[in-house]
Amino acid sequence: MFTGIITHFGEVKNRFEKDNQEYFVIKIIPNEKNESLISALKLGSSIAVDGVCLTATDFEAETFSVQTMQETLKLTNLGSKKVGSKVNLELPLTLNQGIEGHLVLGHVDGRGEVLVSERKEDGNWVLQIKPPIDLLKYIAYKGSITINGVSLTVSKQEANFFEVSLIDYTLSNTDLGELEVGDFVNLEIDMLARYLERLTSSPTP
């Protein structure tokens, strides 16, 4: 489980296929928190890569590797990642850690398409996303949404899209600042919405 607060930034250094499985080698981009990430990674460790919960299969001083299945590549934006692509990284939540974002599972619900990514006249950077139609009912104005692993608040909602506003820190320290119109992003809805639907749709015994 994660919080959607991105602590590290990575870059795809290599991508290769072996036995019908896709492997990514990710280099950790230097920042003041790199030491904690390297020391925490072990073989079999979970790590969120652009919001996708994956398992570290190998690691060195500056890089680690993850393995993905074809289904993961099909249902997330990892299928479009190339050498040089940036990715958001987050280690799992620990019991003694405060929750600054919201509870995130690392299970991507679908891919959204970027319709707008620009700075408005008021200085705010706006990201407008068109989600899969079946996810629209889970996305609420001022509710939580995870985009590429980043915990954000919905600032506007319309019939077929929603918007979030990004601060400069988020633009500089995640891959959201590099998004262009037509790009696809990983979306995870708030787990509370998922369980509420389950509770309200289940027949009363």
List the defining traits of the structure above.
single chain, 205 residues, mainly beta, Elongation Factor Tu (Ef-tu), domain 3, 2 domains, six-stranded antiparallel β-barrel, six-stranded antiparallel beta barrel, 4 helices, 40% strand
CATH architecture classification name of the largest domain = Beta Barrel
Q: What is the number of domains?
A: 2
Percentage of β-strand residues: 35-45%
Number of helices: 4
Q: Give the class from helix and strand content and strand pairing.
A: mainly beta
Helix content: 10-25%
The ordered H/E elements are: EEHEEEHEEEEEEHEH
Distance N to C terminus = 32 Å
Radius of gyration: 17 Å
Give the strand tally: 12
* Unreliable sequence segments: none
CATH topology of the largest domain: Elongation Factor Tu (Ef-tu), domain 3
Shape: globular
Under the CATH scheme, which class of the largest domain?
Mainly Beta
Question: Mind summarizing the main beta sheet?
Answer: 6 strands, antiparallel, barrel
The whole-number mean of residue pLDDT values reads 87
Strand order of the largest sheet: 1-2-5-4-3-6
